[in-house]
TrEMBL record:
<dbReference type="Pfam" id="PF01453">
    <property type="entry name" value="B_lectin"/>
</dbReference>
<feature type="signal peptide">
    <location>
        <begin position="1"/>
        <end position="23"/>
    </location>
</feature>
<keyword id="KW-0325">Glycoprotein</keyword>
<dbReference type="InterPro" id="IPR036426">
    <property type="entry name" value="Bulb-type_lectin_dom_sf"/>
</dbReference>
<dbReference type="InterPro" id="IPR001480">
    <property type="entry name" value="Bulb-type_lectin_dom"/>
</dbReference>
<protein>
    <recommendedName>
        <fullName>Bulb-type lectin domain-containing protein</fullName>
    </recommendedName>
</protein>
<keyword id="KW-0732">Signal</keyword>
<feature type="domain" description="Bulb-type lectin">
    <location>
        <begin position="24"/>
        <end position="145"/>
    </location>
</feature>
Length: 256
């Protein structure tokens, strides 16, 4: 019995160190991140994914490793954890990325994307993208970049996927303590090839527009037009049969 107890303690310590100390960036089906001990860190150490606390709620999110206060993505904005129990994992039965509390699924993060294949992994990249992948056929099932919250990282998109109907928008948070959706959205609204602009809406109504993009310049965002800042800001526009969107090389935050 003593030997079994010692083995259990050593195994627990090993698991804690595996996720929190060595910078592991990938979990597989059945692995769990819990509220207190485990996180994933991207290979280069840029980003961390795990649980974080606000005054009254607990969320799963991604943040800059060197600045835990700067959250760039939140998984359960509308469904925070209010108990002291919670795990973040790939469900081994469905292949879905979920948050569970007290043995019950609280949030299906990867929506309807699932796989009965047990060879499913989730990986945090140095870009800040967190993706769910079927390793058997090398197929991406879901990625956080397709579901932005209030921060647009380099490599993310604003716009529409014309094949699937998916829209990429930013939505403000209610406050620093409450990550639920706020009243403002930022979207890329090209109505046609000639009209392409950023639009902020408040409760669905137009609140601000950047003016139409013209020769890669945005009229009401002069900071992006400064030639001396081109090494910081690079806004690319894509319009084809598959998508119409911008593809930024800079970061945008939407704050209430």
């Amino acid at each position: 019995m003593k030997i079994l107890t010692i083995f259990t303690i050593l195994y627990t310590i090993l698991i804690i160190n595996l996720f929190s100390s060595t910078g592991v960036s990938t979990i597989k089906a059945g692995d769990q991140l819990n509220l207190t001990t485990s996180q994933l860190v991207s290979p280069g150490g840029n980003f961390t994914v795990g649980f974080f606390n606000t005054t009254n709620y607990i969320y799963v999110g991604i943040w800059y490793t060197n600045d835990e206060t700067f959250k760039v993505w939140v998984a359960n904005q509308s469904t925070p954890i209010i108990s002291s129990s919670g795990v973040f994992m790939i469900d081994p039965d469905t292949g879905k990325l979920i948050i569970a509390t007290r043995g019950t699924t609280l949030v299906n993060i990867s929506d309807n994307q699932s796989s009965l294949d047990s060879n499913i992994t989730a990986t945090l990249e140095d870009t800040g993208n967190f993706w769910l992948k079927n390793e058997t056929d090398n197929r991406t099932l879901w990625q956080s970049f397709d579901y932005p919250t209030n921060v647009l990282l380099p490599g993310m998109k604003l716009g529409s996927d014309l094949r699937t109907g998916m829209n990429w928008n930013l939505t403000s948070c209610l406050s620093n303590d409450i990550a639920d959706f706020g009243v403002f959205t930022l979207s890329w609204e090209p109505t046609d090839e000639a009209s392409k602009r950023l639009m902020i809406r408040r409760r669905g109504q137009p609140y601000w527009t950047s003016g139409n993009l013209n020769n890669q310049k945005i009229p009401y965002m002069p900071a992006l037009n400064n030639p001396f800042r081109k090494y910081l800001y690079n806004l690319s526009y894509v319009y084809n049969d598959e998508e119409m969107c911008n593809d930024p090389l800079f970061q945008i935050n939407v704050i209430v």
